[in-house]
Amino acid sequence: MSLQITPVTPSDPTSFDQYLAAAAVLHKHETPAFPPTTRKQLSSMFEHPWPGNVQERYVASAEGEVVGYVSVEHYTEDNPDMANLDLGVLPEHRRRGHGRELLAFAEERARDLGKKTVNTHSMWTLPELDLVAPDEDGPAFARAMGYRDALPEVNRVLDLSTVDESVLDGMLEHARAKADGYRLIRWNDPTPDDIVHDIAYLDGRLLADAPMGDTGWEPMNVDAERVRKTEAAIIARGRTSYHTGMVHSDTGRVVAWTTITADDEFDWHAWQQITIVDPDHRGHRLGALVKVENLRWFREQNPKVTAIDTFNAAENGYMIAINEQMGFRPQYAFQNWRKDF
Ligand SMILES: CC(C)(COP(=O)(O)OP(=O)(O)OC[C@H]1O[C@@H](n2cnc3c(N)ncnc32)[C@H](O)[C@@H]1OP(=O)(O)O)[C@@H](O)C(=O)NCCC(=O)NCCS
């Protein structure tokens, strides 16, 4: 039986609604503790794409019934050989060949675009952290389709009702003792003009510095113009970012930076995003310092938030140690899968 695969666009309310409904089923099945994707967010993704990023979304039906979706994400400014696929088949429609057909469609699309490597992801079971995936379908499917595991990732959540302020005080005290010669700054988007080049540099370093396993992702080419375009999309999508940085007094440069972002669709939730310290300035506890200071500032401004989620590569020991100390606890694990054409 063959699937009907329809492109999703905001101008086609049927495909748009079907995609949203299918994504909601997968969300409830896999990651119910995360905020779901709302109609407004999905529209915003079409209206305000990330610079250098193209997202194609499709919804799949069999005999008139929606059975799943797939998206193909590709890039114009870096990682030109890569595509990232997101694929889901509704639990009650599995093991009928729909996943195989949807994946073949997405891979063909990636090949037509000239891509040489595709990545995708699934839930993952990590017994050492007591994390159990809702099912083992994703990994079994990925392996059967010729993908190899490229990078396990762990989501941790900070339940703000459990934060121990005395632990945070201790972290700050310990960090400040090693951070002479640096001063703290904070800002909301847009990034102030005088630091935008430093932020571009740090942002571009992230994929070079964070463990990327075997995924094949190359560092992004980030300049001030790209920072501006990205933050314009963030603001237009209804997100408010809280940034804390450390400026090295001798050079005047921002050498450490972290961000928490809240979406105006949810007053209870936020994402802990990037944290990065310039390699020349590591060993001064600047990572811990910016994270704790940013968390406190964010909470003052957003007293209704109860949960903050973050992602790390399972092997990112330094960042995980800081997160665990702050009170972040493992919630979901994921595996990134890779296939080369
Ligand atoms: C992964 C997923 C898309 C598979 O969809 P599906 O329609 O059930 O997949 P198919 O029926 O086309 O399966 C193709 C092959 O994958 C393998 N497979 C799929 N699920 C499996 C399972 N639970 N156990 C063992 N093998 C499995 C089998 O080899 C199967 O072929 P077969 O049925 O002829 O033996 C679906 O389970 C899903 O949406 N999971 C959650 C989202 C996800 O993990 N997506 C990314 C996957 S990389």
Walkthrough of the structure:
It is a single chain. The chain is α+β, with helices and mostly antiparallel strands. It folds into two domains: 4-115, Aminopeptidase; 158-334, Gcn5-related N-acetyltransferase (GNAT) (Aminopeptidase, 3-Layer(aba) Sandwich), CATH 3.40.630.30. Helices cover 34% and strands 32% of the residues. The chain contains nine helices and twelve strands. It has helices spanning 13-30, 39-47, 98-112, 137-144, 165-176, 196-209, 224-236, 286-301, 317-326, and strands spanning 4-7, 53-62, 65-75, 82-89, 117-124, 148-159, 182-188, 239-248, 253-263, 269-277, 307-313, 329-340. It has a twelve-stranded mixed sheet with strand order 1-2-3-4-5-12-6-11-10-9-8-7, with helices on both faces. Helix 8 (286-301) links the parallel strand 10 and strand 11 (307-313). Helix 5 (165-176) packs across helix 8 (286-301) and helix 6 (196-209) packs across helix 7 (224-236). The longest helix is centred in the N-terminal third of the chain and has 18 residues, at 13-30. Residues 87-89, 94-100, 120, 122, 136-138, 140-142, 144, 337 line the site of coenzyme A (COA).
